[in-house]
Design a protein that fits this description.
By secondary structure, the chain is of the alpha+beta class. 48% of the residues lie in helices and 14% in strands. The chain has helices spanning 3-20, 40-48, and strands spanning 28-31, 52-55. A two-stranded parallel sheet has the order 1-2. The longest helix has 18 residues, at 3-20.
């Protein structure tokens, strides 16, 4: 998957979290340490949305 396609998917996911949440934008997203969760593109999108990461 290209970085552009991945970025679009992550941005849509983050937008749905913000729109569907009754408590506002989350402060952190918790995930595993696998490469599918810690790719640079995903972390950049999360950071740009003002959301922190908490890997376990």
């Amino acid at each position: 998957m290209s970085d552009a396609a991945l970025r679009t998917i992550v941005q849509r996911l983050l937008a749905s979290l913000t729109l569907d949440s009754t408590r506002g934008t989350p402060l952190f997203l918790r995930s595993g340490n696998g490469p599918e969760f810690v790719s640079r593109t995903i972390l950049e999108c999360i950071s740009a949305a003002g959301i922190g990461t908490a890997t376990i």
